[in-house]
Amino acid sequence: MAGKKDIGEEQRCAIVKAQFDKLFKRIEKGYADHTATYISIPVTSGRRLFGVLNKYGLPLALDDELLRSRIHLYEVIKPNITAAKRHIRKLSLDGLVIDPTDVCIRGASQKDYRDFWKKVITKKAARVIIALDWAFSFGCLYEIGLAFGIGLPIFDSFGKCLNKKEIEKRIKDADHEVEEYGFAGCPLMKFWRICEIGGLS
Predict the structure, then answer these.
(1) Which of 27, 82, 108, 146 has the fewest beta carbons closer than 10 A?
(2) 201: CB partners within 8 A, 6+ apart
(3) Are 121 and 40 contacting, i.e. CB atoms less than 8 angstroms apart?
(4) Whole-prediction pTM value?
């Protein structure tokens, strides 16, 4: 039984990798290096995630089992994508824009997505715009940490270029809010500190 499970996981990884590789080749053709605006916006987490975890009495654990659940799909991911699409349209950005909500690979893990977006941001982005409830999003915090690490400017939705001090103030404010949902201990700031030093692979 263990052997079959291992083979299944190996096949999943191979299929997911092939899909991400194909997608990156399309991005390579459509975007010159270091010219695109990358939109960092909540997809799998954000404020909605904390509300859903509180609603169902679930712990804060971003494992892949939760990410593949129907609750997470219909109460976090889909509403996040709808809100993100609406918000990005309102930004009316010029030039090449990379919208992460356009990418959905069935069976992909959080690490698969992190590895893919790290590759895209590092090679293709000229700047990063952080939007909506980004301070509540573990994915956004990872991307912001990456952007700082490679020297990309980071803007909010109003066009203001943010420094690290301003970023951290908003993360602290978000932690105060999630504490009201029952998640004490500053989980967002702790995660940010890991991302800030490049400690999340």
Answers:
(1) 82
(2) 111, 114
(3) no
(4) 0.91
Q: pLDDT digits over 46-77, tens only?
A: 999 999 999 988 888 766 676 668 889 999 99
Q: Of 116, 137, 140, give the one whose Cα is nearest residue 128.
A: 140
Q: What residues have CB less than 8 Å from 35, skipping those under 6 apart?
A: 95, 96, 124, 126
> Residue 5: what residue type?
K
**Helices 138-150 and 164-180 meet at what angle, rounded to 10?**
170
Pick the closest to residue 97 from 7, 178, 37 (CA basis): 37
Task: Tell me the per-residue pLDDT of 116-163, one tens digit each, with 9 for 90 and over.
Answer: 999 999 999 999 999 999 999 999 999 999 999 999 999 999 999 999
Indicate the SS3 state at residue 5.
helix
Nearby residues of 42 by Cβ (< 8 Å), 6 or more positions away: 48, 49, 80, 84, 132, 133, 134, 136, 137, 139, 140
Q: Residue holding tokens 């109003």?
A: 158
191, 201, 8, 9: which is closest to 113 by C-alpha? 201
Residues in the chain: 201
Distance CA 37, CA 35 (A): 7
CB 148 within 8 A of CB 154: yes
CB atoms within 10 A of CB 127: 16
What is the C-alpha separation between 176 and 120, in angstroms, rounded? 32
